Known about the structure:
Number of helices: 4
Helix content: 40-55%
Shape: flat
Structural class: mainly alpha
Number of domains: 1
Number of strands: 2
Distance between the termini: 25 Å
Order of helices and strands: EHHHEH
Strand order of the largest sheet: 1-2
Radius of gyration: 16 Å
Strand content: 5-15%
Amino acid sequence: MVATEKLNLKNMTRQAKGKGKHQKAGLNRSILDAGMGYLRSCVEYKVVEANGVFIQVPTQQVKPSQTCPDCGRQ
């Protein structure tokens, strides 16, 4: 079983408005060059090929960094 964070690359690479346009353009380029979407699809393919389970966790609803591992409360 492999679980990954569900990334919304379209929102992550949205064009900036106002100050910092050039910095945001560089960040967008770096995000797209890293090929996170391609890496996810390759991992998913290999997991399914090995009869495993692949899931994407929607972190906007789950908020794993704000959840207590002992009691599960946010």
